[in-house]
Amino acid sequence: MPIDQPDLIVERYLRRLGGGRPDPAALTFFASLDQMRSVDPLVADRVVAELVDQRSNIKLIASENYASLAVQQAMGNLLTDKYAEGSAGHRFYAGCDNVDAIESHGADLAKALFGADHAYLQPHSGIDANLVAFIAILATRVEESFLERLDVKNVSALSDEQFAELRTELHDQRLLGMDYYSGGHLTHGYRFNISSRLFDARGYTVDRETGLLDLDALRTQLHEVRPLILLAGYSAYTRKIDFAKMRELADEVGATFMVDMAHFAGLVAGKVFTGAYDPVPHAHVVTSTTHKTLRGPRGGIVLSSADYADAVDKGCPAVLGGPLPHVMAAKALALKEASQPSFQEYAARIVDNARALADGLQRRGARVATGGTDNHIVLADVASSFGLTGRQGESALRAVGMTLNRNSLPFDANGPWYTSGLRLGTPALTTLGMGTDEVDEIADVAVEVLRATTPVSVNGKPGKAKYETEAKVVQEARARIAALCDKFPVYPEIDLSIVEG
Ligand code: PLP
To answer: Is the pTM of this model over 0.90?
Structure first.
């Protein structure tokens, strides 16, 4: 039963405006809080608390951003009620005309923005996008020829024995992706992920000395492994990659070239990565998330050449069920936003800010992997620079108002839980309007705090999680970060004093 609310936040907002014109985004946000409160106030309160948290801490998580309120609010609509299994114009349910229109429009926007032959908007996340791509490549490269050999139209016409034979053939394929500890993603063949159970997965690493991807070494490995799929893309690598060259290498061994651009899709959309560094003209299949540098809703997308299009569109039933039409609506809005000239300026500023962050850290004595960055990520080595684990660095910085994540460095002696590194990213703070001066201030505060932080021993051994930071440094750092947060508020359209009453 709805809970009675004597005083609606929306009414308070309108009273405060005194007849002035309401901001549609603020009005919708306040109305949605009223709706949530009428059912379960805890949920509404936590939404407000999250905004307070994000307003009082600088977001340096490289995989996060702030989607526009139009994108946010598109996700909270009645399209969520609709089942639309299948693909646009080819559904297993009646009444899908509006979902068809939204999905086709979003796919057209994606094709135009990235210059792709084909776009598939349904994956619910980056992991799903990669699963759709893997299954589509297996279907196109392995299953189709198996069926042709037996002169059979589809798998339902196979006997149980023939299907078992196909399964063995599907299972016998190799994937060569960037090793998790060199910056690749879980889905690129990590032992604990389904990718390494679906494929005989092998990993290529970065060079131990330089931290850079070595395409000559990769070529040698590629000829040894001869995989079905050569997979490029990363979650923690800071340099641009020559995708034109990688495609040449893939062609030498007849591999399908797949790129997971989840992290840097916004830099491709914003024309920072062009020519050989733009994966779309060179890869057979490109996957992405929509919520990182691309600044859209949480979700995934697959782009492909025409050869893989039919198989990609069969994401459902292969690995997906019903799509999320409300999220596809939000993806279409985000793709439209990313098609505007202002997005190109945004993408260029992300990289300027990341370079300023890497420079600022290094000038103050922090070691940065590969000596800098070409993208939105900076990997700082807190073990060699400050004698800390990544876990201690992450906690010490969060305590002064910086949200970021610890990350393994290549060949990390501290393993994936404690780590030796911090991954810092600039997409979110760039969305807020911060520039290189603010980023330099952030680098200064971060180094001051890390320098003033020491591991606390546990049972006589240096602790990997416990730490202490000098109180005076913490106090000063908090004040400096708070000043930046006040100057660059998150979603300034929303005046939280109205919620507080
Ligand atoms: N691919 C890459 C390169 C990523 O960095 C990530 C997420 O961090 C993913 C895929 C998975 O995305 P999601 O968390 O949406 O499943």
So the answer is: yes
Centroid of ligand 1 to alpha carbon of 193 (angstroms): 12
Strand-pair partners of 405: 423
Predicted pLDDT at 1: 47
DSSP code string of 19-47 = TPPPPHHHHHHHHHHHHHHHH-HHHHHHH
Look at residues 177, 135, 175 and name the one whose alpha carbon lies nearest to residue 304: 135
pLDDT tens digits, residue range 490-501?
999 999 999 987
Number of domains in the chain: 3
- Helix or strand (DSSP H, E) at 416: helix 415-418
- For residue 127 and ligand 1, the question of a CB distance below 6 A is answered with yes
What pLDDT does residue 23 have?
A: 95
Q: Which residues sit in the known binding site for (6S)-5,6,7,8-tetrahydrofolate?
A: 184-186
Same domain, 200 and 283: yes
For a substitution probing ligand 1, which of 131, 285, 289, 302 has the most ligand atoms within 8 Å of its CB?
Answer: 289
Question: Is there a single domain that holds both residue 389 and residue 461?
Answer: yes
Residues 370 and 329 in one domain: no
- For 200, the domain range is 78-338
Q: Which of 64, 235, 319 to mutate to test the pocket of ligand 1 (most atoms within 8 A of CB)?
A: 235
> What's the CA gap between 24 and 44, in Å, rounded?
19
Q: Is 407 in the pocket of ligand 1 (CB under 6 A)?
A: no
- Compute the distance between CA of residue 346 and CA of residue 241 in angstroms, rounded to an integer: 21
Same domain, 95 and 18: no
The residue behind tokens 């994956």 is 123
Nearest atom, ligand 1, residue 128 CA: 16
The Cα 235–Cα 314 span in angstroms is 27
